[in-house]
């Protein structure tokens, strides 16, 4: 279905859009875009980031998380159906009167309340349905900040956060498209966010840009925390990075933004994609390597979840969230609370 020539994507609220929602999804995937870095289309980055790449100027707009999963024979042959959601936030790198006003806390709070806490979205609440978070560029670093925020909120035990422990329990995968886990070179940061005497126009960057620069200096510690958290809680990590240089539209030579060295994501697999930074997450079709890398990851996560639930069949396994809502609880309940507490403390130690 299209509207004014654009595919119609369901808007659930101001911060959450839904690409597709089959009746009985095997997996739920949340897509998180990055900060505006060049002259790419940023009018709707929660959508345009995930647009199908086409060499034809007049090609109709298509968002691949909306269409590819359902027509991917590899997934359908395994009866894997995907619910795909995209998080929306202000991605402007410049601060103006009406853009670039949010900081990481605002975005994280909006994510918790609009994505997980909303009964209309209800993501990560289905037993046996794993959640995968997919981030592009800064969106990958933002995912780590979001999970840290969710973990802290989950420990507060309030009814407003009743969905958070179950979401964390179902979180099984991180997939990163050109996320700089091990820092960008100073020259690259300067090209992305120019400053100093050589900049003809004085620019006021938003809080996210400042955060990005801070994280880039201390990203190794953030990466170590993510790696430990993922390993301790059965979260699989994978990713892809660009092998081509990127034209930033600043009349300077194209540069490679995220290299293999900076894209390393712990023990997870890492694929080289013959695209630039903006197109590393924009496949041309279901056979494209940048789509297949994620599709293979989805199959691994779903198969692993099915095996674990098959092994646990017939066992009376309590749900974590039921203990978090209970005051005191049984010994097994208190143990679950301690486990959730350990999750948050371990993640938070990276900051």
UniProtKB/TrEMBL annotation:
The keyword 4Fe-4S does not apply. Keywords: Endoplasmic reticulum, Membrane, Mitochondrion. SUPFAM superfamilies: alpha/beta-Hydrolases. GO terms for cellular component: endoplasmic reticulum; membrane; mitochondrion. InterPro entries: AB_hydrolase_fold, SERAC1. Residues 326-345 have a biased composition (Basic and acidic residues). Residues 326-351 are annotated as: Disordered. It comes from the Eukaryota. Signal peptide: none annotated. It is found in: Endoplasmic reticulum; Membrane; Mitochondrion. PANTHER family: PROTEIN SERAC1. This is DUF676 domain-containing protein. The lineage of its organism: Eukaryota, Viridiplantae, Streptophyta, Embryophyta, Marchantiophyta.
């Amino acid at each position: 279905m299209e509207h004014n020539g654009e595919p119609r994507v369901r808007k659930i609220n101001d911060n959450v859009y839904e690409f597709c929602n089959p009746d009985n999804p095997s997996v739920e995937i949340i897509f998180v875009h990055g900060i505006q870095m060049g002259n790419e289309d940023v009018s709707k980055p929660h959508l345009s980031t995930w647009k199908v790449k086409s060499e034809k100027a007049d090609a109709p707009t298509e968002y691949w998380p909306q269409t590819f999963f359902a027509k991917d024979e590899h997934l359908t042959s395994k009866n894997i159906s995907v619910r795909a959601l995209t998080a929306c936030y202000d991605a402007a790198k410049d601060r103006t009167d009406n853009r670039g006003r949010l900081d990481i806390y605002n975005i994280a709070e909006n994510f918790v309340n609009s994505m997980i806490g909303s009964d209309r979205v209800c993501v990560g609440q289905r037993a046996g349905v794993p959640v995968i978070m997919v981030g592009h560029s800064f969106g990958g670093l933002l995912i780590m900040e979001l999970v840290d925020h969710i973990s802290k909120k989950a420990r507060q035990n309030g009814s407003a956060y009743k969905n958070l422990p179950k979401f964390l329990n179902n979180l099984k995968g991180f997939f990163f498209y050109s996320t700089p886990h091990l820092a960008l070179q100073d020259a690259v940061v300067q090209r992305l966010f120019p400053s100093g005497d050589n900049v003809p126009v004085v620019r006021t960057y938003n809080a996210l840009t400042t955060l990005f620069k801070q994280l880039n200096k201390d990203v190794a510690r953030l990466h170590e925390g993510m790696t430990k958290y993922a390993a301790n809680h059965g979260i699989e990590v994978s990713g892809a990075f660009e092998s081509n240089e990127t034209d930033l539209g600043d009349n300077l030579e194209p540069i490679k933004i995220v290299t293999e060295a900076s894209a390393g994501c712990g023990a997870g697999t890492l694929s080289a994609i013959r695209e630039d930074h903006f197109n590393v997450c924009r496949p041309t079709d279901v056979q494209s390597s940048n789509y297949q890398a994620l599709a293979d990851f989805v199959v691994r996560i779903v198969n692993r979840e099915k095996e674990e639930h098959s092994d646990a069949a017939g066992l009376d396994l309590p749900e974590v969230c039921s203990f978090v809502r209970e005051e005191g609880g049984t010994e097994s309940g208190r143990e679950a609370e301690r486990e959730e507490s350990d999750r948050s403390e371990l993640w938070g130690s990276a900051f």
